[in-house]
Design a protein that fits this description.
54% of the residues lie in helices and 20% in strands. With 401 residues, the protein is of the alpha+beta class.
Length: 401
Amino acid sequence: MKKIVPKQRLNVALLLLIPLLTWTAVAVVLLRDATLPSTAFGAALLSIAALLALAGLLWRTQGQANALARALARAQQRQRALQDDIDAVVWEADWPAMRFTYVSGHAACMTGYPAPAWLADPLFWQRHLRERDGAPVNRAALGSALRAARAVELEHRLTRPDGDVIWLRSSVRALDDGAPLLRLRGVTVDVSSDKQASARLHALAYVDGLTELPNRHSFTDRISAAIAVAEHDRTGLAVMFVDLDHFNRINDNLGHAVGDQVLKVVAQRIASCLRSGDTVARLGGDEFIVLMPHRDAHAAHYADLAASLGALADAPIAVGQHQLTVALSIGVSVFPQDGVDSTTLMRHADLAMYCAKAAGRNRWCLFEPAMAQEQARALPAAILRASSRGRCAPDADTRAA
């Protein structure tokens, strides 16, 4: 392979060749002119020798500089390749304009926007990066955090050109290197899969898998928060316990798949009767519970709602070739007169619902203290009956009392 001499080395050679040729011509003249003293001839030879030595030194120095430049270029190329290959976007930006000055090549794969698009648009940050609520990233808050800690971590979302929304997490550092503008350096990774996994875990913990309503755990959190608000605002709230009458007959005669479809329809119908601030949750089986903030003890409120729920429940539910109807038994307790904590309110609403069942089903009942007193009197006898049968739990008749 033919060796190519770097251009810089050629330039050095030309610069040295001109004086070298000049002094060589002078030496030739001195050799022909015998009248000149020998000292002049010696001086000319010494000058030529010095020029030759200097030429060699500069040639080697330039070669070393070229080798270092090539090594630096290779190192920079390796660094860019490493940054482009990692599963993250490495970037730098001017602050406070948030204009990107460097973006690694993985930006195209991660976000759908290639690095030149980030660099060419001075408003790329403001246009494409959004907070959880969809608002642009708050630069004032980011600036305050950077002044306090010099390094922050923030999450934002970005809509790709294909319409998909991804979640990004950026670790950002402020670089105060004496430049006129403060610079930021960040590493951004895609955390969409983490967000999806977190959402699935949240759904498992707080959402009923069949009806997609809040579950018991979620309802307990909500009623505790609602009680705190009611205590602060000196307002009331109500808890409504809803149970399907004779629902086990559907499961026993038509199967649980049909029963599940009925439960989903009933859940949707109950939700459609509520106000925007109310919550309906499924406790399990055929039991639902409703939280109604800013309610008082006036029976008219619950009579209207119970009538609406009953009318919706009476409407036939089509499941395959079956046309099914269900009836609801409903119990209501009210804060603060029927209880000041979630456990008591839920227990009293449950007791009122069983009193509705004992009164003939397909009706609603508002909790009264006498119900708890009657239950307390019936409980010892129920325990004795359960013990004699080898069980230790109240039976259905006792609860209905």
